Amino acid sequence: MGDDRNIESAKNVFAESAPAECADREASHKRTGGGTLDRYINLLSATNFGFILLCSWEFVSVVFQFSLLNGGPASMIYGSIFSGIGSTFIAMSLAEMASIDPTVGAQYRWSANFAPKWNKFWGLTQGWLTVFAWMCASASIPATLANIVVSLLIFNYENYVPKRWHATLLMWAFTIPAFAGNFWFRRLLNVLQTVGCLCHVFFFIISVATLAVMAPRSSVEFVFTSLTYNVSGWTNAGVAWGIGLLTVTSSLSGFDGVLHMSDEVKKARTRVPRSIIASCVLNSVLQFAYIITLLFTLGDIDKVTSTPTGLPLIEVYYQATKSKHATNVFVAMAAIVIYTALFNDLASVSRLIWAFSRDNGLPFSNFFAYVHPTFKLPVNALGLVGVFITLIAIIYIGSTTAFNAIISLTALALYISYFLPILFFLLKRISKNPPEYGPFRLGKFGVALNLYALCYILFIVIWMPFPTMLPVTAVNFNYAGPLVGAVIIGALLDWCISGRKRFEVPVPRHKPDL
């Protein structure tokens, strides 16, 4: 922890631009209505916001089949420990930077200011990557919910034949209330976050207790020593284990979501770092506990992996309860929390787009930087996210491959977005001119924790573009790597065309709220 002198000096750590330039930017923001947002989020709401947004055990419960095919139980259980530690170190590294500069822009702002050179270039490129990652994350949540509903319909009605347009309509049905609810997010915040947090914990307890009491038991050897490497086509055990990490690592990405609400959090310099770390640690623990329970109560693994519903979680609870009604309830529990996370996701990404627009990072920045005087939120930025999800849902009708390709870049892009600011901050930390720290600092362990976080990110990023099935076809190809590359190329083109003149390296716009 830093002392009062460090806190005071940290207020001006990024004030590198000339006063006249800052005044011009402020005048521009006033013309567009893109001023500051009101601070109204307290510590409890900020912590619950990040805690619910990750919803890690719920996410794992609906996608764990991918790890069963690659790596199996060994990848799931040991990978969960590995990812929990790595993600926590990333969260601690981000929390330290948030303590210095708690900003909505977060990663792109820190990259722009901590980079030893080419600050505008790194800031703009980072901004494009982070914005696209979060917009795709917003589309992936309605898609996950639609998949759950379609799977339950198949489970309950033998004559039901799913159509692609069913999923599209379901995505719209889930998105519209969450989109509309964000206009009154300030009023809904306390109730929504409290209910969501209680559901996140109580549904976990109920789900784990039910499986522990009623489900058939797997052997200890199956849970702790089974390594699957010959089912998906990958015959190398190490490769299969690495690919199997994707499930448990993807579910622990996105803890930067609360960072993008920083301008609305009271005493953000201390509360935002706490929220980042708490949400990551708590979700890591819940995820690990759920995975152990799930593996010990998996039942007939052949039935689970070949279920006609396409959602193995349904088969797990059906084998445990022998009741369709009970199975529907337990699957719905996970869906409820995931849906709550959609409200938080839309709020977070809309603020990120707004912040990037304030710094002229996007085309038509004046339009997306507008803050509605009544709702006190960036309505145009929120509208952009809504339009994006609507269009992506339409793509699903024409091609599920194209749809899945677009949303597949989320986790990979997010982990890359964590890498750059941590790297630049580490270089700043060990330089002759170290940063002035905020109230939270990693102290003598900072270098080691930053290095571990960077190594963990590099290791995960290596595996994320791998295809999960062999032989590779147009349908099962992993498009995450090429699409992230496409976003980076697009950012480079923007830089060359107008971005280098348009984008402004961010500076503090008002006195930080301590």
TrEMBL record:
Membrane topology: Multi-pass membrane protein
Ranges that cross the membrane: 40-64, 76-95, 127-155, 167-185, 192-214, 234-255, 276-298, 329-356, 377-397, 403-427, 447-466, 478-497
Keyword Transport: yes
GO function term, MF aspect, one: transmembrane transporter activity
Keyword Heme: no
Name under which the protein is recorded: Amino acid transporter
Subcellular location: Membrane
Organism (species): Zopfia rhizophila CBS 207.26
Keywords, in A-Z order: Membrane, Transmembrane, Transmembrane helix, Transport
A GO CC annotation given for this chain: membrane
Domain of life where this protein originates: Eukaryota
